[in-house]
Amino acid sequence: MARKEKKYHYIYKTTNLKNGRYYVGMHSTDNFEDGYMGSGKRFRRSLNKHGKENFKFEILEFLQNRESLIEREKELVNEGLLKDSLSMNLKKGGTGGFVNDEHRKKFFETSHDGFRKKLKEDEEFRNKISKIASDNFKKAWENGKVKHFDWTGKKHKKETKLKMSEKAKLRSGEKSSQFGTCWITNGIKNKKIKKEELNKYICNGWYSGRICEGKSHLEESRKKISEKAKLRVGEKSATFGYKWITNGLKNKLLKPNEILPEGWVFGKKIDKDILN
C-alpha cells in the first residue's frame, strides 16, 4: 500500500535566540501545529540544552509535493550554508526523509540489521547502548515519567507462566548468570561468592545459606528453628568428630581418623579480610 501524500510541504528555519545559530530543513505534514522544529543531530542537542522557548520557528517557503521539496532543500542547504559558522546543518540538503515506501523499507532493513549485528559483536558498543538506556530510564524515573508498577493481587496467565518457564530452562546450567556462585552468611550479613571460594570462607566462620535482612521470624518459627538445630548437635552433626587445624596460612577440618599433618596445629587462624 502506497504511503499517503502529506497535505503541506515546506522549507523552514529554526533559530536559537540566545546565540543566533540556526537550522534549515524540510518538513511534510497534515498539521501545522504538530510541534516539529527540526531533526538535525547538532540542532537537537542545542534544543535540549536551551529549551524550545529559546527558539524561533519560521516557514520560509511552501512546495507542491515531496519531490519538489527535496529538490528545493538541495538548492538551499548547500556547501556555502554548511560553511556558515552559525549554521547547525551538518550535511547538504535533499538527503533527509524518505522519497517513497521502497526507500523507507530499505533504510529500516539495513539500519536494523546493522544495529543488531553490531550490538551482538561489539562489546564496547553494547556497553555504551546499555549505559544510555540505563541513564535515560533513571532520568525518566526521577522526572516521574516512569512509575512503580504494583503487582499486588495480580497473577500471570497460565500461557505467560508456561512461556516464562520455557525461557528459564534455556538459562539453566552454564547459561545462567548465577552459574558457579552461592550464598554464604556469617549470621550478620550475606555474601554471594564463587563456589571455588566456599572452603576458604567456611574455614573463617561463614556457612552456606543466607539470612533474611530486614525481616525477623515469628516467635513460633524461631522456636522451630531452635529445636531443629538442637537435633543436629553431637553425633548427629555433619561435622561430629572433626577438628579445626591450621598451618598459619589456611584452615581446614581434620577428619576423626586422620593424622595431624606436619606443620599443622589444632585451632584456626581468622582471616580479617574474609570477616570484612
Mean of all residue-level pLDDT scores: 81
The fraction of residues assigned to DSSP E strands is: 15-25%
Estimate nothing, just give the exact number of structural domains.
Answer: 3
Category by helix and strand content: alpha+beta
Largest sheet: 3 strands, antiparallel
User: What is the count of β-strands?
Assistant: 9
Q: What's the tally of helices?
A: 9
Backbone shape = elongated
Helix coverage percent: 25-40%
Order of helices and strands: EEHEHHHHHEEHEHEEEH
Low-confidence stretches: none
Please explain how this structure is put together.
The chain is an alpha+beta fold and 276 residues long. The protein has three domains: 8-97, 3-Layer(aba) Sandwich (GIY-YIG endonuclease), CATH 3.40.1440.10; 99-129; 183-275, no CATH class. 37% of the residues lie in helices and 17% in strands. It is built from nine helices and nine strands. The strands form three sheets. It has a three-stranded antiparallel β-sheet. Strands 5-4-6 form a three-stranded antiparallel β-sheet. It has a three-stranded antiparallel β-sheet with strand order 8-7-9, with no helix packed on it. Strand 4 and strand 5 (190-194) form a beta hairpin. The chain is elongated and about 95 Å long.
